[in-house]
Amino acid sequence: MAASDLPPLRHIAIAELRRADIPTKKIHTDEDLVFWKTTRGYQDYGLFLRRLNESVVGYTLPWTEPPSEPAASILSMLDTLDHWIDEIPPLPTPQRFGNLAFRTWGRRLESETPSLLHTLLPSSLHPAIPFLSPYFATAFGSPVRMDYGTGHETSFALFLLCLSLLRYIEPNPVHERELVLSVFVRYLRLCWRLQDVYNLEPAGSHGVWGLDDSHFLGYIFGSAQLRDQTEYSVSAVLRPPLPLTNLYFMSIMRIHEVKHGPFHEHSSQLYSIATGVASWSKVNSGLFKMYEAEVLGKRVVVQHVFLGGLLDWSVSPDPTPSTPTPNTVPTLAPHRAALYPTSIPHTNSASALPATRVPWATTVSQASTPRSLTGSPFRTDGVHSGHWHGHGHGPIIAARMPLGPTASTALRPLDSTSGTSPRSLGNGVVSSIPPPAASKEHECARGEGGAH
């Protein structure tokens, strides 16, 4: 689907913003998380990511087109933050994670964000600065916890969404492509430098069972770049060095810079994709599902995201049923039903666990449980069935529930010849791997305190 085939992104006029709607942290309970997925802001974000995704299909890096004026201004602002790293060097005192100098850098960002946005925006958009500041100020890591994760990356994407809703950036394929291949690439390089210089801890890392310690969107956009080409197969990522012609390969090479050892041990999810997914199109669609489930669907991540104002906290006007019925998928509004076809059968399973499997996992049972009350803007098929629809290269076991960096690093396929008794992972997936010991207190501390 071309970017031009997607619905347009709505326009929010300055006059529509009310001081009472300045963004705040609204997700505190699981009920808040469920409600968020029904809001107009959530739908806007899903559509925005889809438009960015489709705009880069078939395009490569480096991006050499001259930047538009808005993009050039954003790039200049990111350059300013990069210069601050030179002005605030890391302290010589040893810390395992997080150099204390990052707190100085973070305080400077927090205090100077309004002035940076005042310089970035035309005077007509200055009243929107209080609605934009929370996203930009939280897009580069937490100076309190001295960590960085997918929640911070999401904050930057939401910042770009808000600029598009205000029409500072025109939401057309040309400018959206520029946002990904120029602005987002610059943002990634800045974040990588912050992580290296200040030794930032991965926020809420799933260890080897996560896709990446800190990032996610680069894999989505990169797989879109690779989607229609035939030169590189999905398994090409197992043969480094890779050309830096797309965000997916850039992200893989970044992993090789910061991690050592066999790739299948320290990056088992990416290895599973490389060995078990047949096409880049399936990688791209599956990563969207995984992003919605493992980033936007995890309260410990999105509880730190500011919502309201430009990211409308009210229920989306799209008519949707209040409760999905078994063997059906939610009914979508007419303009969205064309975008997200719902022809895939959906069955209910009373025994299914709420944990989300990776989309490319092969399961013993085909049963799954409806997970969303509304049609998701992130899904091309209207539902997340929990596995890839298509032919893979053999059974690949789904990741276990994340236990942090102490989890086992071995990728273990299902072994029908093993003499050990299989252990159920839920949703029909079984494993012969004995569960590692992990205290409930440890998991709670990691989830509530460090995930963003």
From TrEMBL:
CDD domains: PTPA. Residues 407-452 are annotated as: Disordered. GO terms for molecular function: peptidyl-prolyl cis-trans isomerase activity; protein tyrosine phosphatase activator activity. It is found in: Cytoplasm. Residues 439-452 have a biased composition (Basic and acidic residues). The keyword Cytoplasm applies. It is an enzyme of class 5 (isomerase). InterPro entries: Phstyr_phstse_ac (IPR004327), PTPA_C_lid (IPR043170), PTPA_sf (IPR037218). Keywords: Cytoplasm, Isomerase, Rotamase. GO terms for cellular component: cytoplasm; nucleus; protein phosphatase type 2A complex. Residues 415-424 have a biased composition (Polar residues). GO terms for biological process: mitotic spindle organization. It catalyses: [protein]-peptidylproline (omega=180) = [protein]-peptidylproline (omega=0). Its EC number is 5.2.1.8. Belongs to the PTPA-type PPIase family. PPIases accelerate the folding of proteins. It catalyzes the cis-trans isomerization of proline imidic peptide bonds in oligopeptides. This is Serine/threonine-protein phosphatase 2A activator. It comes from Sparassis crispa.
